[in-house]
Structure formats: C-alpha cells, structure tokens
Amino acid sequence: MTENKNLNTLAESYNTDKLEHGYIKIYEKYFESIRNENLKILEIGIADGKSLLMWSDYFKNSTVIGIDIHKIDIKEKKLDRHNIKVHQGSQSDDKFINEIIKEYGNFDIVIDDGSHLRKDVIKSFHLLFPHLNNDGLYVVEDMQTSYNHFFGGNPFDLKYSNSHMNFFKHLTDRLNYQEIANPFYISNKYDAKITNVSFYHNLVFVRKGVNDKLSKEVINHSYENMKFNEKSSRTRNSFKYYLKYKVFYKIYTFFFMIFTMIKRLLLLRF
Ligand SMILES: C[S@@+](CC[C@H](N)C(=O)[O-])C[C@H]1O[C@@H](n2cnc3c(N)ncnc32)[C@H](O)[C@@H]1O
After folding, report:
1. Which end of the chain is more exposed for a tag (fewer CB within 10 A), N or C?
2. At 235, is the pLDDT very low, low, confident or very high (cuts 50, 70, 90)?
3. What CATH number should be reported for the domain whose range is 7-208?
4. Which residues of 203-222 are buried (b: 16+ CB within 10 A; e: fewer)?
5. Active site includes 116?
C-alpha cells in the first residue's frame, strides 16, 4: 500500500531527480493538505515517467496528465495506471495544448518540467494559466536555465533581459497592480488573477486567485485623485486642494513620467 507514504519516500522509491534538486520538501509543504482531493494535475515533461508515477501514488484520488514532445512507451515506463494519462505534443504548440484543455478542462496544478527554454516556459504559461482553477498552482522547475543563454536566458543582464526569470519577477507587479500610481496605467491580463508568487532555488510557484482588493493609497491609479478626495471631503473650500493635487501634483506626475520614458528610451529599455 502506498497511501501513507510521504512524498519524500515516494520520490526515493521512484528515484526522481526532483529529490536531488531539493524540490520535494517544498512540494510537500504545498501539497500535503490537498493530497487526498480529486484534482487535475498536468505535468509538462515525462521522460522516464518517474515523477508521473510519484504523483499518481501521492495524489491517489486525482488524475495526473503528462505531456511530452517525444513518444512515451506507456507499457515500458509502467505508466498504464487508471489515474495517469499521457499525450504526445509540444508545450508551446497552441493547437496541442488547446486540445488537452478541451479534453480535461481546467487544472488544479500545472508543473512545467519540459524543455526549460525561455520561449516554451513563457508560452506554456500564457496558454495554461488561464485554464488553472482558482487557488490552483502553476509551478516551473529548473529556473536556473534563466541564467543561461543556451536556454534563452541571459547571464549578462539579470535585471532587464527578457529571460523567463524576469517574466516571473514581473508577475509580482501583477500582484500589486492596484497600487501603481500611474494615471496612464494600461491593465495587464494577469491583473486581479494572481494571489501569490513564490521563488525558491530554481523553482517558482504562482498561485491563481481573485485579487481585486482596492488600493488604500491610490484611486484609479492616481495618488493625486485619492488625496484630493480625502482632503476636500473634510472642508467646504476644496479649491486649494484642487490646485495642489489636481493641478500641481498632476503636472509633477506627468513630468516624472516623461522623464522616465526618455531615460528608458536612451537606455533602450522597452
Ligand atoms: C526533465 S525531463 C522530465 C522529467 C520528469 N518530469 C521527471 O521528473 O521524471 C524533460 C522532458 O521534457 C520533454 N520536452 C522537451 N521539450 C518539450 C516540449 N517542447 N514540450 C513538451 N515536452 C518537452 C523531454 O522530451 C523530456 O522528456
């Protein structure tokens, strides 16, 4: 019987390299309380099927779907279990991923252990994150590839390159989109949809959820409007506050924005 085995024991018995990467302890922290639920779990990258077998034992009431660009011999890898499904295709092929979504519906957990190439990691996130259930987790393994130009990363420009690590770092701005005091703010498709982004050594977790709390600092991305409303509500004579917040501070914000845009242009930061 495998039902009482913890993830570490299962990882050892299937000899998955997630153990030596140090991922198992972290996964257990996230998954222990939900292991008996009926979930839909998608793992990108099957290889020998070790992790699929581990997930299949650990999440015994769930369906574990594995996809791989290469043909996987289910019999040879002993993946012919009732709660394992295997499909061949690329993680960045829109048509293939949409067929998977059509077949299984939304997922509760997606683990990207596929090519680890920048283009594939980001494309899969765009394709699959919208089909994650609320409170679901999107996990990307082996993020060390982001520091390696052979995987589309960039070891020479850690801050501004369009590496996959920077893609996930920037999702933290989506967590706080309400607070961005830019009156010209253009909303992003992940605003209001992310409740947590956690980084571990080589591993990223993104939690989906409703994040629609209003800011206490800005109103419609404007600090000036918030301040004007706050101050003028306390007085009959709001003209002074109008001049201060709606005119003077707005002009200041506008020039600060223009200055920042010119700086970005000169530094070729788009
Ligand atoms: C690191 S292995 C997966 C290991 C497995 N998850 C485990 O822990 O036992 C990576 C797998 O991703 C597959 N792969 C590479 N590029 C892919 C792509 N574009 N789409 C889907 N799978 C891909 C490879 O064929 C390989 O089997």
Report:
1. N
2. confident
3. 3.40.50.150
4. bbbbbbeebeeebeebbebb
5. yes
Give the span between the Cα atoms of 253 and 227, in whole angstroms. Answer: 14
Q: What is the pLDDT of residues 90-132, one digit of tens each?
A: 999 999 999 999 999 999 999 999 999 999 999 999 999 999 9
- Take atom 11 of ligand 1 and give the residue whose Cα is closest: 45
The Cα angle at residue 224 between residues 219 and 229, in degrees rounded to 5: 65
CB atoms within 10 A of CB 166: 18
Residue 153 and residue 44: Cα distance in Å, rounded?
19
**Amino acid letter, 106:** N
CA of 13 to the centre of ligand 1 (A): 20
Q: Which atom of ligand 1 is nearest to the CA of 111?
A: 6
Strand-by-strand arrangement of the 40-44 sheet: 84-88, 63-68, 40-44, 107-112, 132-140, 203-208, 194-200
As for ligand 1, residues whose beta carbon falls within 6 Å of it are: 16, 18, 43-48, 50-51, 67-70, 90-92, 113-115, 120
Residue whose tokens read 């369009």:
162
**Burial per residue of 127-163, b for 16 or more beta-carbon CB atoms within 10 angstroms, e otherwise:** bbbebbeeebbbbbbbbebbbeeebbbbeeeeeebeb
pTM for the model stands at 0.95
Is 1 a residue whose pLDDT tops 50? no
Domain-wise residue ranges, the chain: 7-208, 223-266
Q: What is the pLDDT of residues 26-84, one digit of tens each?
A: 999 999 999 999 999 999 999 999 999 999 999 999 999 999 999 999 999 999 999 99
